[in-house]
C-alpha cells in the first residue's frame, strides 16, 4: 500500500523584521547575517500567538468537512509547548472543530519530532488505511535579545496530512533514524530561551547527516543520481549548505550541481521566516516544491535533525498533481507587515512566557485566524478570529 504525505501547509506570524536593520542595531556587518548565516527576514511573534495558535492556523488551511470526518489522530510536534501535562494537540483539535473521537498527543525531541510524527502516522495509516493522520510541527525559536543565536530565531508551523494513496509524497520503505545523548541545545523547564552550543550543534548535525545517509545508501543501494533534491532541517539556511558541502566536498558534476541548485530553492522561504524548529525541514520541502524544478516522479531525500540529539534520513517520491496539495506560501509571506527593531524588542518582552498572572491581550492588531487572548486562573484562553 502507498502511504505518504497527502497535503502540506504553512502559517507564520503577521510581523517580521529585516535582518539588515537588526545587524545595524547590533553593530554587526549585515553580510554576516545575509551571507554568513543566510537569513534575510525573521518572523516576530506578538503575545497573541503561540505554538497552539500557529499550529491551528497552519492546519486550518487544509480543513474541509470531509477531511475533518476522516482525521483519526492529531500528532503535534513542538518544543514550545504551553503546558507540561496537557497536550497542545488538545487545544488545536478544539480550535479546528474536530470530532470528539480523535486521538491527540504531543511529541517532543527538539526540531526532529515532526518527523517522528510522520513515521508514526505512516504506521497508523498502515493499520487503518481509511484513516488520515494530521501531523503538525509548530514552534517559536527564541534565543534572546543580543545573543549569537538571535539572528537564527523565527516562528511558524507546518501541517501535513498522512494518508493512503497520498497526492503529494509517497514515502519509501527505508528510513534511517539515529540518536545519542548530546548537550548541543536544550531548554530547562525554568527557561524561556533556548541554551545552545551553536558550533558544536552544527558539527553534530553534520555527523548525524553523514552517518544516516551512508547507512541509508547501504540499505537501498541508491546513489546521488537517484535524488532530485536533498532537503534539510534549516535552523539557519547556511546550515543546509554546510551539510551538503560535507557530503559533496568540491565535486562539480551533474549530480552535485543539481543538488546545490535544489538546496538554494529549498532555502528561499526559511530565509524569509527564520527557524521553525519542528517545521523547518517541511518549510524547506514546500520551498523546493514551489521554487525549484520539482516534477512528479522525482525522488526527494529528507534529513531531519533535532538537538539532544536525533537525526533521520528518509525519502519519498513526488506524486502527479502534488503542486495542488500546497498552500501559497509566497502570498502568505508577502502579506506580512514589517516592524522596527524597537517594536520587535517590545513584542519579544511581552510574551506570556512563564508568568502565572492573569492577563488579557489586545487582539485588535493581530489578523491571524486564532488568538491567545490571555490567561485566567492559570488557564490559557484561546479564541478563533471570526
Ligand atoms: N560577511 C560574510 N560572512 C561572515 C561575515 C561577513 N561580514 N562575518 C562572519 N561571517 C560568517 C562566518 O565566517 C561564519 O561562517 P561559517 O559558519 O561558514 O564559518 C558565519 O558568518 C557565522 O559567523 P560566526 O562568527 O561563526 O557566528 P556566531 O559565533 O555569531 O554564531 C551560530 C553563529 C549559527 C553558531 C549562532 O547564531 C547560533 O548558535 N545559532 C543557533 C544554532 C542552532 O540553531 N542550533 C540548533 C539547531 S541545529
TrEMBL record:
Entry GO MF terms: hydroxymethylglutaryl-CoA synthase activity
Protein name per Swiss-Prot or TrEMBL: Hydroxymethylglutaryl-CoA synthase
EC number: 2.3.3.10
Binding site for (3S)-3-hydroxy-3-methylglutaryl-CoA: 29, 143, 242, 275
Tagged with keyword Ubl conjugation: no
Residues annotated as domain Hydroxymethylglutaryl-coenzyme A synthase N-terminal: 3-164
Family membership: Belongs to the thiolase-like superfamily. HMG-CoA synthase family.
Pfam families: HMG_CoA_synt_C, HMG_CoA_synt_N
Keyword Acyltransferase recorded: yes
SUPFAM superfamilies: Thiolase-like
Domain of life: Bacteria
Enzyme active site: 79, 111, 233
Keywords linked to the UniProt accession: Acyltransferase, Transferase
Lineage, highest ranks first: Bacteria, Bacillati, Bacillota, Bacilli, Lactobacillales
InterPro entries, sorted: HMG_CoA_synt_C_dom, HMG_CoA_synth_N, HMG_CoA_synthase_prok, Thiolase-like
Gene Ontology BP, a term: acetyl-CoA metabolic process
Ranges of residues in domain Hydroxymethylglutaryl-coenzyme A synthase C-terminal: 178-248, 262-349
Amino acid at each position: 500500500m502507498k502511504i505518504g504525505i497527502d497535503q502540506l501547509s504553512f502559517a507564520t506570524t503577521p510581523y517580521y523584521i529585516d535582518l539588515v536593520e537588526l545587524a545595524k542595531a547590533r553593530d554587526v556587518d549585515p553580510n554576516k547575517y545575509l551571507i554568513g548565516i543566510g537569513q534575510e527576514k525573521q518572523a516576530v511573534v506578538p503575545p497573541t500567538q503561540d505554538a497552539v495558535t500557529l499550529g491551528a492556523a497552519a492546519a486550518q488551511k487544509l480543513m474541509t468537512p470531509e477531511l475533518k470526518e476522516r482525521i483519526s489522530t492529531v500528532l503535534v510536534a513542538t518544543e514550545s509547548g504551553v503546558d507540561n501535562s496537557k497536550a497542545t494537540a488538545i487545544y488545536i483539535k478544539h480550535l479546528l472543530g474536530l470530532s470528539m473521537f480523535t486521538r491527540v498527543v504531543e511529541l517532543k525531541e527538539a526540531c526532529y519530532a515532526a518527523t517522528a510524527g510522520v513515521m508514526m502516522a505512516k504506521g497508523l495509516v498502515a493499520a487503518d488505511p481509511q484513516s488520515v493522520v494530521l501531523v503538525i510541527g509548530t514552534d517559536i525559536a527564541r534565543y534572546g535579545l543580543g545573543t549569537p543565536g538571535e539572528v537564527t530565531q523565527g516562528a511558524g508551523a507546518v501541517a501535513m496530512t498522512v494518508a493512503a494513496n497520498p497526492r503529494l509524497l509517497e514515502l519509501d520503505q527505508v528510513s534511517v533514524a539515529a540518536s545519542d545523548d548530546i548537550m548541543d541545545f536544550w531548554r530547562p523547564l525554568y527557561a524561556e530561551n533556548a541554551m545552545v552550543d551553536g558550533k558544536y550543534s552544527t558539527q553534530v548535525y553534520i555527523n548525524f547527516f553523514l552517518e544516516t545517509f551512508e547507512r541509508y545508501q547501504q540499505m537501498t543501494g541508491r546513489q546521488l543520481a537517484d535524488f532530485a533534491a536533498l532537503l534539510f532541517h534549516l535552523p539557519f539556511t547556511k546550515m543546509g549548505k554546510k551539510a551538503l558541502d560535507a557530503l559533496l566536498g568540491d565535486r562539480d558534476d551533474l549530480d552535485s550541481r543539481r543538488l546545490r541548485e535544489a538546496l538554494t530553492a529549498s532555502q528561499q522561504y526559511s530565509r524569509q521566516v527564520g527557524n521553525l524548529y519542528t517545521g523547518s525541514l517541511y518549510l524547506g520541502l514546500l520551498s523546493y516544491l514551489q521554487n525549484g524544478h520539482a516534477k512528479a516522479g522525482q525522488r526527494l531525500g529528507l534529513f531531519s535533525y533535532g538537538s539532544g540529539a536525533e537525526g533521520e534520513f528518509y525519502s519519498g517520491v513526488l506524486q502527479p498533481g502534488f503542486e495542488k496539495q500546497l498552500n501559497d506560501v509566497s502570498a502568505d509571506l508577502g502579506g506580512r507587515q514589517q516592524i522596527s527593531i524597537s517594536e520587535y524588542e517590545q513584542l519579544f518582552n511581552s510574551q506570556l512566557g512563564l508568568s502565572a498572572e492573569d492577563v488579557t491581550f489586545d487582539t485588535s492588531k493581530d489578523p491571524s485566524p486564532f488568538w491567545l487572548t490571555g490567561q485566567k486562573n492559570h488557564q490559557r484562553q484561546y479564541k478563533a478570529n471570526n
